[in-house]
Design a protein that fits this description.
It is a single chain. The chain folds into two domains: 1-22 and 125-179 and 199-219, Translation Initiation Factor IF3, CATH 3.30.110.170; 23-124, 2-Layer Sandwich (Alpha-Beta Plaits), CATH 3.30.70.2970. 24% of the residues lie in helices and 40% in strands. The protein has three helices and eight strands. Strands 2, 3, 4, 5 and 6 form a five-stranded antiparallel β-sheet that branches.
């Protein structure tokens, strides 16, 4: 007489964690313009050095600073020919801040710099953060709990694992509005420091798992 095959149960386990962000990212756009291309580049380089020196004053509170390529765009005069009215230059700094207590002050000072605009902050997690592993582990526990619930309803128990499929991990900030450019006109008095509170991030993990069950009593 052939043995009865073990019954299978396939379940999906999911979890969503609300976690605090680990870093805040800013994008600082520095601009310059002049009728002369070289003077445009010189002004742009000088303003970039000034912004970088400002950022460096915050030491380890800033995790990383990177600059994108310089863009120089000629503005032609109207009419025929290729006569240039002015040259416009821009360079972007991408700033990652780990200490949120200095964030408002840093954004304020960068926004007060000459011909600089600030976008952000965007609240993020570091790549490879342990939060992802914790979410995946809890999703697997949720799948096992669900399988045991089904088994209990059938009067049996889970006996083994056949397969696990990772549906994926994702995260998004909760209630975070799009970044708004921040800029201040040059003034003698220092601008007020902005109050920037971190927004929680939702980390979602999901798995699909197949378990074997002990043969239940006849239904």
């Amino acid at each position: 007489m052939a043995e009865r095959a073990e019954p299978l149960v396939r379940v999906r386990g999911e979890v969503t964690l609300d976690v605090e962000p680990e870093i805040a990212r800013l994008v600082v756009t520095i601009r310059a313009q002049d009728r002369n291309r070289r003077r445009t580049l010189d002004r742009l380089a000088e303003r970039q050095r000034a912004c970088r020196a400002l950022i460096d004053r915050y030491g380890e509170a800033v995790e990383d600073v990177g600059a994108s390529a310089v863009v120089i765009t000629p503005e032609p005069r109207g009419g025929r020919g290729e006569r240039i009215r002015a040259y416009h230059g821009a360079v972007r700094l991408r700033v990652s801040v780990r200490d949120f207590t200095v964030l408002g002050e840093l954004v304020t000072e960068l926004g007060d710099a000459e011909m600089a605009a600030v976008e952000g902050p965007s609240w993020e997690l570091r790549p490879g953060t342990e939060v992802y592993g914790r979410a995946a582990e809890q999703a697997m526990h949720a799948a096992l709990t669900k399988a045991r619930t089904y088994a209990h309803a059938l009067g049996t128990e889970v006996t083994g694992l056949v397969e696990v499929a990772d549906i994926g991990l994702s995260h998004n900030a909760v209630g975070y509005p799009p970044p708004v450019p921040v800029a201040y006109a040059a003034a003698e008095a220092a601008p007020p420091v902005l109050d920037l509170e971190p927004h929680p991030i939702q980390v979602h993990a999901a798995v699909e798992a197949t378990f074997t069950l002990a043969p239940p009593p006849r239904l």
